[in-house]
Structure prediction request, 149 residues.
Amino acid sequence: MATVTQIFPSPAADIWRVIEDGWLYSGWVVGASRIRAVDEHWPQVGAKLHHSVGSWPFLIDDSSRVTSMEPRRKLELLARGWPLGEARVLITLEDLGGSQCRVSILEDAVRGPGKMVPRALRDPIVSVRNRETLRRLELMAAGGAGRKS
Prediction:
C-alpha cells in the first residue's frame, strides 16, 4: 500500500474543515476534475461524493463512498474510477500540539485493472500523486478553506 506522510503547520481542526467539505475535493485531490454532487450526510459512513476523474474530453463520472470515519482523525474511502477500478484510501490526522498535524494518505487498488499493475510499479506513481495531494490540502487548510463565513 502506497503511504505518504507530511507534517502540516496547521492543527487537525483546520485540515478536517477542508476534508469535511466534499465540494472542495476537486481542489486538493489530484485526479478529481470536478465534484458533481455531495451526499447531504458527508462525511458520515455510507455517504458518497459524486465526482469526475480525468481531463476533458476524457472524463469518467463515478463516486467515492465513506467506509469509515472519525472526526478530525481519519477518513477511509472506497474511491471509484471505472473502468480503471477502485482503490481503498485512508487519510489520517494526528495532532502534534500547537499548530502542527501529521497527515498521512494510504492508498491501494482493490478492484479492477489497476490492481493488475504490480505493486512495485503502482506504489511509486500513487505516492507521487498523493504527495501533490497533500501539498494542495496543506495550502487549502492554511488559507482557511472550509471555514464558514
